[in-house]
Design a protein that fits this description.
The chain is mostly helical. The protein has one domain. It contains 21 helices and no strands.
Length: 433
């Protein structure tokens, strides 16, 4: 137990040092995070060889899963903005004062796709139009539905391991996701009271139908494909099997999503000239902008893998899982694993496997209790997103925040959302028994 607490203390120290290095010392976040990973591994008694090998696995897996999707999203966002469509839509939305409100339902729908990080990457063109706090609100809303609403992968995984009915999980998780997404929206307004959009283009031109299509189609079609992929991967195979299932899952792979997002933006903007497509034009600008975000997200994924290698998260989770605190136990175990490892899916699978034999002792063995346990695991699996989570760094990039501000805004937001979810689940477990 002493070793587990030592590793947890090292992680907390790494977070503090990152804030100091990027804030006071002005060191680039990529270099600061890379150095902290090496220091953490050595302090955790890992060999130099194992640090490098383990980090490489996490780095490569992260870039494989989200790298191309992010590139497609940034290319689409750049073309939509430089064409003038995003500024015109932004002006129209600003007149109606609905930008931040729109972000909540969009994030909730997109969150049931295969990954909130991929979802946010594909929503980047919309972020350029909504502006303000939209990236943070979208990020928190994506995490809410991804954690709680089937057919999201972690809701389905939790239901499968814990033997819960997916329909019951949806009936509990969907309203809960809406509530905590609204809590996240409220928190975003308090954590980011002012947002600087001074470097964005101002326009007096009115938005056209073509502008709306230029913004919407490169976002909606890839997001729809992500959702289809989630549905296709449900164990009951609702979209069929064999070749049909391979089609639905294959068309939602990162390469295909990048081609759809960037290709649709190129077609709709219709700027087939050197200004748009050259290395020094819009395309070159987008790829250059993507490089920094890709690197820091890949390094964060490698950090999560190094943290996983120590085994501290699982040991701490197992220690806590023996507590008989009802629905609060799976929530806290999942929150600890998520906070220490940075992966919601790993937190869900790890916690569900620990908790399933303990459901009778926790009073959660009935069908409704199992559904509540799935929701508790999901809510814990989004709490707390911080520097070992690629989603943290994508949110920082999209919202243009420093690491310290992102810790306040996103990490604080996921903590608030998790706390609200835990309170509601405690009430539901008392009422529905």
């Amino acid at each position: 137990m002493t070793g587990v607490l030592y590793c947890a203390a090292l992680l907390a120290l790494a977070v503090v040092l990152l804030v100091v290095l990027t804030g006071r010392v002005r060191l680039h976040a990529t270099l600061a995070l890379a150095g902290l990973i090496v220091a953490y591994g050595i302090a955790a008694d890992m060999t130099i060889s194992s640090i490098g090998r383990t980090f490489s696995i996490g780095f490569v897996n992260t870039l494989d899963q989200i790298g191309l999707v992010l590139l497609g999203g940034i290319v689409a966002a750049t073309f939509v903005e430089r064409s003038g469509a995003a500024p015109r839509i932004a002006a129209a939305l600003a007149r109606r004062r609905v930008s931040s409100v729109i972000a909540v339902p969009i994030g909730l729908v997109a969150g049931i796709g295969a990954s909130p990080t991929s979802g946010l990457a594909l929503l980047l063109p919309l972020v350029r139009a909504l502006r303000g706090r939209s990236a943070l609100v979208l990020s928190l809303s994506l995490l809410a539905s991804f954690a709680l609403v089937p057919p999201s992968p972690i809701a389905i995984a939790g239901s499968s391991v814990l033997g819960a009915d997916a329909t019951t999980v949806f009936a509990i998780g969907a309203p809960l996701a809406v509530i905590i997404a609204l809590a996240g929206w409220f928190y975003a307004g308090r954590s980011l009271p002012r947002v600087d959009d001074s470097d964005t283009e101002a326009t007096t031109e009115r938005a056209s139908t073509r502008d709306a299509l230029t913004l919407a189609l490169p976002v909606l079609i890839p997001i729809a494909l992500l959702i289809v992929q989630s549905v296709a991967q449900i164990p009951s195979e609702p979209l069929g099997r064999g070749g049909m299932r391979e089609l639905f899952t294959g068309i939602s792979r990162p390469l295909m999503l990048m081609v759809f997002a960037a290709g649709l933006a190129l077609l709709l903007v219709w700027r087939w000239d050197a200004t748009a497509l050259s290395e020094r034009g819009w395309a070159g600008e987008a790829i250059t902008a993507a490089a920094g975000a890709l690197m820091v997200m890949g390094i964060a994924g490698g950090f999560g893998r190094v943290l996983d290698e120590t085994g501290a998260a699982e040991l701490l989770g197992e220690t806590l899982s023996i507590k008989r605190w009802g629905v609060l136990t799976p929530f806290l175990v999942a929150a600890i694993v998520k906070t220490m490892l940075g992966s919601s899916l790993t937190a869900t699978l790890t916690t569900a496997g620990m908790i399933e034999p303990l459901l009778p002792a926790l009073g959660l063995d009935a069908p409704t209790g199992r559904a509540l346990a799935v929701a508790a695991v999901g809510a814990g699996a989004m709490t707390v997103s911080h520097i070992n989570d690629p989603h943290f760094w994508l949110t920082a990039h999209a919202q243009r925040l420093t690491p310290s501000r992102t810790l306040l805004a996103l990490s604080g937001g996921t903590a608030v959302q998790g706390g609200v979810a835990a309170v509601i689940l405690l009430i539901l477990s008392a009422v529905l028994r």
